[in-house]
Amino acid sequence: MKRLALAGAALAALLGGCASVDPGQALGPAQDWSQRVDAVTPQLRDGAAPDDAARAARARLLAEPLGQQEALQLALLHSPALQALLAQAWQAQALAAQRGAPPNPVFLFERVVTAGDVDITRFLGIGLTELLTWPWRSEVARRDIEALRWQLARQVLAHNAEVRSAWVRAVAAQQQLAYHRAVQDAAAAGTELARRMQAVGNFSRLQRAREQAFLADATAQLGRAMAVAVQEREALVRLLGLDADDAERLQLPERLPDLPAAPRAADAVASAAMGERLDLLLARAELGAAQRAQGLETVQLFDLELAAVSELGPGGERGRGFEAGLRLPVLDPGIALRQAASARLLAAQQRFEQTRVEAGSALRERYALYRSAYDQARYQRDEVVPLKRTISDEMLLRYNGMLVGVFELLADARAQVVAVIAAIDAQRDFWLADAALNAALAGAPLPAAAATASAARAEGPAERGGH
User: Fold this and answer.
1) Superfamily of domain 62-458
2) What is the pLDDT of residues 13-53, one digit of tens each?
3) SS3 annotation, the chain
C-alpha cells in the first residue's frame, strides 16, 4: 500500500506539471504578431501600478508632442484595459490547460467502531477513464489553448489599430478646430463691418442679417468642433490609460502626417498579406479542437474507477485487495452531449469555410477603400486647395484694385478655409483607411474608429455644415 501510494504521488507530480501556462507562453504569439505588424511588444505587468521604468518611459513620451507610434508605445506600456485583456487571456488559457490535466488520485480513510472493535480501512484510487482519456483531453486542451492565443493576437492587433485610429481622429479634430476658429473670426469681422455700414446707411437690413446668420452658423459649427475635439481627445486618453494629470500633460501634433508619395500597389498588398492570417489560424485551431473532442464525451460516460484497499481488523489482522466501480450510462445515455459535440464540429467547419471566403473579400474591400481615400485626399491637397488659394490671390488683387468689396473678400477667405477643412477630413479618412488595411493584412478585426470613415467620407462639406 505504501509503495502504491508513493508511486501514485510521483505520477501525480509528474503529470500535474503539464497543466500550467506561464505568461510568456500565453502572450507569445500576440507579442510576435504585434512586433511584426506594429513594431511594439505588449508586456503583462505583475502589479496594478506601473514600475519605475514604465513611469519614466511614460514621462518621457508625454514630455513632447505625442506621435502615432509613441501613442502606441504608451498604450501598450500603460493602458489598464490592455493589461486586463492580457490577464484575462492568460486566465482563459490556464483554465483550458486545467481541463486537459491528468486526474488526481483519491485517498479515503474509514474508521468504524463496533462494540468496542475498531476496523480501519484505507482506499487509494484513481479514475481510470479520466487517466486513459488524459492524452485525448490533453490534445483537445492544447488545441483550445492554441485558438485562445490566436484570438489574443487578433485582439492585441485590433487594440493597436484602435489606438492608431483614435490618434488620427484626435489630431484631425484639433487641426479642424483651429480652422473653424478662423471661419468664425472672419464671420465676426464681416458682421461687425455690416453693422457699421448699416449705421451709416451704406448697407441694407437684409445684407446685415445675412452676415449675422452666417456668424451664427459659424459659431454653432465652432461649438460642435470644440465638442468633437474634446470627445476625440478623451477617447485617445482612455485608450492610453492616462489619469487626469497625465491627460493635462498630453500634447498632440498640430497636424496630421503628410500623405505618402504614392499609395500601396495592389500587387504589393496582395504579396504583403500574411500567408497565415490570424483569422484563418484561429478558425483552423477551433476546427481542430472540435474534431479532436468528437467522441470524447461518449467515452467519459463510462466512468471506471479503481482503488487499492488496505484493511486493519480489530485483532490486528491485515487485509489487502482492490475495488472497482463503473458508472453505467442508463438514465443518461449522453445523447445531448453527443449532439452538442456534433453541433460544435459542424459550426467550426462552417466558420472555417466562411473565414476562408471572407479573408480575400475583406482584403479587397479594405484596399479599395484605402485607394479611394488616398485618391480623394490627394485630389483635395493637389487640386482643390491650390485652386481655392489661386482664387483667393486673385480676389485680393481685385480688392487692392478696388474691383471687389471687402465682403466678397471675406466670403472668399471663408470658402478657402472650408476647403482646407475638407482636405483635413480627407487626410484623416486616408489614415483611418490605412489602419484598417494594416489590420486586414494580418487578419485582425476592423478597428471601430475606422468603421465610420466611409460614411464620413461619403458626406460632402454641405452635409457636415460646410459652406
Assistant:
1) Outer membrane efflux proteins (OEP) (1.20.1600.10)
2) 444 445 678 888 889 999 999 998 898 999 888 765 667 78
3) CHHHHHHHHHHHHHHHCCCCCCHHHHHHHHHHHHHHHHCCCCCCCCCCCCCHHHHHHHHHHHCCCCCHHHHHHHHHHHCHHHHHHHHHHHHHHHHHHHHCCCCCCEEEEEEEEECCEEEEEEEEEEEHHHHHCHHHHHHHHHHHHHHHHHHHHHHHHHHHHHHHHHHHHHHHHHHHHHHHHHHHHHHHHHHHHHHHHHHCCCCCHHHHHHHHHHHHHHHHHHHHHHHHHHHHHHHHHHHHCCCHHHHHHCCCCCCCCCCCCCCCCHHHHHHHCCCCCHHHHHHHHHHHHHHHHCCHHHHHHCCEEEEEEEEECCCCCEEEEEEEEECCCCCCCCHHHHHHHHHHHHHHHHHHHHHHHHHHHHHHHHHHHHHHHHHHHHHHHHHHHHHHHHHHHHHHHHHHCCCCCHHHHHHHHHHHHHHHHHHHHHHHHHHHHHHHHHHHHHCCCCCHHHHCHHHHHHCCCCCCCCC
